């Protein structure tokens, strides 16, 4: 069977080394500019790791250290990304580019075409392919819609999800492959060498090849080890693999303007709204949901203070009812077809604090599920 190509540009060096400057992290340390925290071997014993502040430029009280690429995958990815950005700044590719960072992920967006509705973009981000012990860069295509533009058929065509005739694009992957290959040809000379004279690193012009193998048919295990190929029908016919051991209290977190939608969501979970598509939590999971075990946590707005207050109310609800399990349901107002950073920040903030307090949280997007037909098919 023929190999397939992954959208990863590999580094030719299976192993490489690079210079950093490091300082042991001590309690109470504050992060300095242009420093990052990574674990590295304390000395020659590579099995004993400590946390170090890392810089790629000399700093006071930082010692020079040579890192082998197999010591820290995260740091090695960080290094090759910084080297890629350096090469781009020096060699000035024909495409306008922007460096983006989102939490621990780093990207370079290349604008390959501009349109009234948005931009066609090729992006690159560092990656470690464990299967082949290879570092490289994921390289892929996307269409970035302008914020003030409606999501319509033309946007879908530019995104390649629809073909030029407005039908489902059967050539989606081959179209992306062609665009990516053309991009590599045009920029490769400027990104080929991203290392230094002492530490050469070369990017391959060819996407990674990997062998193909077939997985067995996916099956799911339910109560009493019953098996089904359908998650939904398996739950419906046999019940959950493992039931929750406590009675549940549901904490609905939402602004007052979503009261009507919250009621529809509640009725949908009980199975009363669309019993033909979802018969309810009690029938499917043996979990009671009724007016006696549903609480509203009022959200005044989306400020950090309001979010913190909601979290504290849920924690209090759990502490006052240790014999029950409190489950949070947060209704968010988030744009679904564009990057909505404030909503994303709220999402991660709530998720973090719920997980920290051993509380489950389900986030429901009003803009995505606000239409009754969407809710009907999404509840299950």
Tell me what you see in this structure.
This protein has 380 residues and is an alpha+beta fold. It folds into four domains: 4-9 and 75-210; 17-68, no CATH class; 215-243, no CATH class; 245-378, Response regulator (Rossmann fold, 3-Layer(aba) Sandwich), CATH 3.40.50.2300. 30% of the residues lie in helices and 28% in strands. It contains ten helices and 17 strands. The strands form five sheets. Strands 2-10-9-8-7 form a five-stranded antiparallel beta sheet. A four-stranded antiparallel beta sheet has the order 4-5-3-6, covered by helices on one side. A four-stranded parallel beta sheet has the order 15-14-16-17. The longest helix has 20 residues, at 172-191. The two termini are 38 Å apart.
Strand order of the largest sheet: 2-10-9-8-7
Distance between the termini: 38 Å
Mean of all residue-level pLDDT scores: 91
Please indicate the count of domains. Answer: 4
Uncertain segments: none
Q: Overall 3D geometry?
A: globular
Q: Radius of gyration over alpha carbons?
A: 26 Å
What structural class do the secondary elements suggest?
alpha+beta
Approximate helicity band: 25-40%
Tally of separate helices: 10
Tell me the number of strands.
17
Main sheet makeup: 5 strands, antiparallel
Order of helices and strands: EEEEEEHEEEEHHEEEHEHHEHEHEHH
Strand content: 25-35%
């Amino acid at each position: 069977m023929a190999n397939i190509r992954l959208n990863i540009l590999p580094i030719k060096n299976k192993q490489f080394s690079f210079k950093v400057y490091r300082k042991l992290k001590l309690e109470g340390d504050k992060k300095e500019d242009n420093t990052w925290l990574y674990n590295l071997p304390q000395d020659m014993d590579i099995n004993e790791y400590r946390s170090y502040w890392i810089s790629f430029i000399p700093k006071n009280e930082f010692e020079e250290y040579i890192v082998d690429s197999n010591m820290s995958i995260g740091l090695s990815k960080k290094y090759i990304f910084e080297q890629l950005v350096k090469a781009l700044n020096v060699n000035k590719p024909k495409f306008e580019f922007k460096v983006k960072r989102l939490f621990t992920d780093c990207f370079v967006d290349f604008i390959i075409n501009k349109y009234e509705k948005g931009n066609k973009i090729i992006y690159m981000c560092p990656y470690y392919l464990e299967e082949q012990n290879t570092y490289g860069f994921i390289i892929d295509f996307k269409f970035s819609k302008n914020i003030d533009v409606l999501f319509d058929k033309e946007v879908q065509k530019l995104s390649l999800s629809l073909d030029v005739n407005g039908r489902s694009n059967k050539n989606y992957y081959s179209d992306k492959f062609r665009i990516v290959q053309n991009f590599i040809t045009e920029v490769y000379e400027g990104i080929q060498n991203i290392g230094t004279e002492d530490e050469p690193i070369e990017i391959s012009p060819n996407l990674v090849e990997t062998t193909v193998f077939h997985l067995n048919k996916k099956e799911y295990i339910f109560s009493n080890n019953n098996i089904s190929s359908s998650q939904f029908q398996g739950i419906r016919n046999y019940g959950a693999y493992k039931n929750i051991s406590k009675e549940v209290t549901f904490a609905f977190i939402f602004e007052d303007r979503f009261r009507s939608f919250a009621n529809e969501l509640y009725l949908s979970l009980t199975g009363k709204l669309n019993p033909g598509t979802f018969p309810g939590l009690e029938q499917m999971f043996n979990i009671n949901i009724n007016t006696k075990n549903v609480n509203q946590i009022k959200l005044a707005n989306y400020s950090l203070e309001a979010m913190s207050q909601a979290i504290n109310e849920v924690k209090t609800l759990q502490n006052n009812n240790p014999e029950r399990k409190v489950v949070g349901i947060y209704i968010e107002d988030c744009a679904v077809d564009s990057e909505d950073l404030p909503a994303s920040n709220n999402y991660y903030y709530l998720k973090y604090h719920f997980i920290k307090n051993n509380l489950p949280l389900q986030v429901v997007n009003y803009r995505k599920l606000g239409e009754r037909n969407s809710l009907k098919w999404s509840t299950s």
